[in-house]
DNA sequence: TTCTATGCAAAGACTTTGCATGCTG
DNA sequence: CAGCATGCAAAGTCTTTGCATAGAA
């Protein structure tokens, strides 16, 4: 995705495309992936960026709110940000901490249950925890 | 569950039944529920217990490891401990932070996907995020 | 006695916030 | 110019750790 495509995408989502936000978006949206704030910061630093930690965190929160990325909660010690925003599910390798997508057509949920009264569904997530075969 | 039943249960799981562990277990296993470490500590304090924060955290980790309770990761800011250990799924109310069980027979997963090579499945969790209907 | 648990406070990881500066429209 | 974004460091949460004391087998 080119720099200007990224800028356009930010604008579509109502986000002011500043230099730092463009950098963050370019790295994260480059391909389907799952990164924590710290991993992302590392990647940015590795390619010479000088964004601050606070800006990365703030930017990711902003992106999450406006639907540009999806927040994932699988590891109690950190959040992951998923560049794939449409509904899909995950494997989580409990030993390595690695997340991977479950191919869309390989899992289906049967008979969504009755929600508690007065509530509506926001999302459905299936998480399969895996580990190395011994 | 009586105090001595709790003690027996701890022993079954290879856990030395000390006074503090009995208190923690008695509160958490009293009924099906989902509590964070802090909520549990509050409950204990409310009923006059003087366990320390560190002991509650350590005890919950211990209980999790030996299968006495199930750790839940739904809120990035804290862990929840579930007194129901057999496989089941959850609703998570994103506004109130409340967790509730999904009745076992109301959800079924169809066609478990192929796992990444060399790995085995540890668990499958379905989490349905809900919020109040507007 | 020997090993393990407990309590307290301190350390630690991750994330957010406050505030002054600098950029955007 | 008015308003928002940025960077830095400080503050905040939740959780773990270190160490001395106390308790269990």
What can you see in these coordinates?
Two copies of one chain form a homodimer. The mean pLDDT of chain A is 89. Chain A folds into two domains: 80 residues, Arc Repressor Mutant, subunit A (Orthogonal Bundle), CATH 1.10.10; 43 residues, no CATH class. With 134 residues, chain A is of the alpha+beta class. Chain A is built from four helices and seven strands. A three-stranded antiparallel sheet of chain A has the order 1-3-2. Chain A has a three-stranded mixed sheet with strand order 5-4-7, with no helix packed on it. At the A-B interface, strand 2, strand 6 and strand 7 of A face strand 2, strand 6 and strand 7 of B. Strand 6 of chain A pairs antiparallel with strand 6 of chain B, so a sheet runs across the interface. Chain A binds a DNA duplex (25 and 25 nucleotides) through helix 2 and helix 4.
Which helices and strands, and how do they pair?
2 copies of one chain form a homodimer.
Chain A: H1 3-12, H2 19-29, E1 34-36, H3 37-46, H4 53-65, E2 70-75, E3 78-82, E4 89-93, E5 99-102, E6 108-110, E7 119-132
Parallel strand pairs in A: 4-7
Antiparallel strand pairs in A: 1-3, 2-3, 4-5
Helix pairs in contact in A: 1-2, 2-3, 3-4
The structure holds a DNA duplex (25 and 25 nucleotides).
């Amino acid at each position: 995705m080119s720099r200007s495509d990224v800028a356009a995408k930010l604008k579509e989502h109502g986000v002011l495309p500043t230099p730092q936000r463009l950098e963050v978006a370019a790295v994260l949206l480059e391909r389907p992936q799952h990164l924590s704030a710290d991993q992302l910061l590392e990647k940015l630093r590795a390619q010479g960026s000088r964004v601050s930690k606070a800006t990365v965190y703030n930017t990711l929160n902003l992106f999450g709110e406006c639907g540009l990325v999806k927040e994932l909660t699988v590891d109690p010690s950190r959040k992951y940000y998923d560049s794939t925003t449409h509904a899909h599910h995950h494997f989580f390798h409990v030993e390595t901490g690695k997340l991977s997508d479950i191919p869309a057509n390989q899992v289906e949920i049967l008979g969504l249950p009755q929600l508690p009264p007065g509530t509506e569904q926001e999302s459905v997530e299936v998480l399969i925890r895996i580990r190395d075969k011994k």
